[in-house]
Write a structure and sequence with these properties.
elongated; single chain; mainly alpha; 150 residues
């Protein structure tokens, strides 16, 4: 049996920080809905008050609900990613590396395509930035997981 790869602390800690960042962003969407609504309004419409000044009360309440639900889902997804990073990825299991890549692709592809299809390219750019933060350590550790093991 081939030995499990030794994962560089740099790449392990990098992934851990990115996952914790996704967790923090998700829970912020639940706990700070006004701030998050302003941030997305600024990102999408170049004005922090564009959503609040353009929509009526029920529409703002709905946007707040959607952000809160999305934030809770993001937080839950990030908890699963955290368990993968702390478990099979850290142990050098190929399945751990693959689980991370598969989960990220399952988020990135439909989210980014839908954002582009609906004209919200700014969200696609945000997705790309987050994907790059994950891709760098995953690319750097690919050979450790899938290269020749001696």
């Amino acid at each position: 049996m081939k030995p499990a790869p030794v994962i560089s602390p740099l790449w392990f800690n990098w992934l851990l920080l990115v996952v914790l960042g996704v967790m923090a962003a998700g829970i912020a969407m639940v706990l700070a809905p006004g701030l998050i609504r302003q941030a997305f309004s600024l990102m999408l419409y170049s004005a922090a008050d564009a959503v609040d000044s353009s929509f009526s009360g029920p529409a703002i309440e709905y946007v707040t609900l959607v952000h809160g639900v999305l934030g809770a889902v993001m937080f839950g997804w990030a908890v699963a990613l955290l368990l993968i990073v702390l478990g099979p990825y850290r142990r050098g299991s190929r399945e751990g590396w693959l689980m991370l890549v598969a989960s990220l692709a399952a988020w990135f592809i439909p989210d980014t395509l839908f954002s582009l299809w609906t004209g919200f390219w700014q969200n696609a750019v945000l997705n790309a930035a987050i994907a790059v933060l994950f891709a760098i350590p995953l690319a750097a550790t690919f050979n450790a997981f899938y290269g020749e093991r001696t």
